[in-house]
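I am still getting used to backbone structure tokens and would like to learn alongside you. To get us started, please write out a protein record for me. Start from the sequence, derive the backbone structure tokens from it, and show both lines together. Once you have written the record down, we can walk along the chain together:
***
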Amino acid sequence: MFTQDLLKNQRILVTGGGTGLGRAMAERFLSLGADVAICGRRKAVCDETAQQWREQFPERRIDTFGVDIRVAQAVEEMVEALWEQGGLTGLVNNAAGNFIAPTESLSPRGFDAIANIVFHGTFYVTQAVGKRWVAQAKDGAWKPGQPYRSVMSIIVTWVDTGGPYVVPSAMSKAGIEAMTKSLAIEWAKYGVRLNAVGPGEIPTEGMSKRLNPGEEPGARSREKNPMGRPGDMSELQNLATFLMASGQCDWLTGQSIMMDGGNALATGGNFYELRSWTDTDWRQARERIEAQNAKDRAQR
């Protein structure tokens, strides 16, 4: 589908790049000639992923950072280190936190745990990278006619319809969509374009066990999606590559692309069916989510 060296001479930072969707996108970038940097709170996981890639792509540069993107100073230090090593041409905001819960049961800490990662963290990384691109353009290092630098942010398919039972994530992802549209206008003259992607269900361990606890991954999509299936990881990899490829479609900016087999059009793309859950159902779901959280903490 893509030429072998499509992303040659590009260097892309993927947040949350050690696992799941982020790992898959970064791996595709490497296969098409890009250098990558990945970050996550669990640096050991990022390092393990990077080691596997170095064996597969020995000619590519791969950097890892153990960073909590909720901490603005930690983000600034990571991005400064990347600039000392040559800078970036692209950014994928993938790091996220999600869980389902009745909104009346949320604690301030629970709300902040998601909002601080999803919205604050995404903004911190985007601003830290973007302000350096803006400075480069003002200094003449980027001029009109040259390939644009690209930011792609992962959102959700229910940003326009609301997301019951996932309120912290829904509100934060809507904020990312607004940021994408605003900065696409503000930074266009500096050679920066921003787009957002809302993937439907593409089963991963973290997503499936926090948003569909107790269900077989993909079962809900096979039952309710107009196409009768969940998404395939390669489909997201292909879309991400298209958005990150400098000079291929630089006029595309400020857009939100929902890749979900038409599910959001048919159902609103949200968790409205959970209204039928009993207190017992919610307790069992919470127990499964907490078990997954404990497993993740043990790996940090």
Notes: Residues 9 and 83 are 15 Å apart (CA to CA). The first helix runs from residue 20 to 31. The chain has ten helices and seven strands.
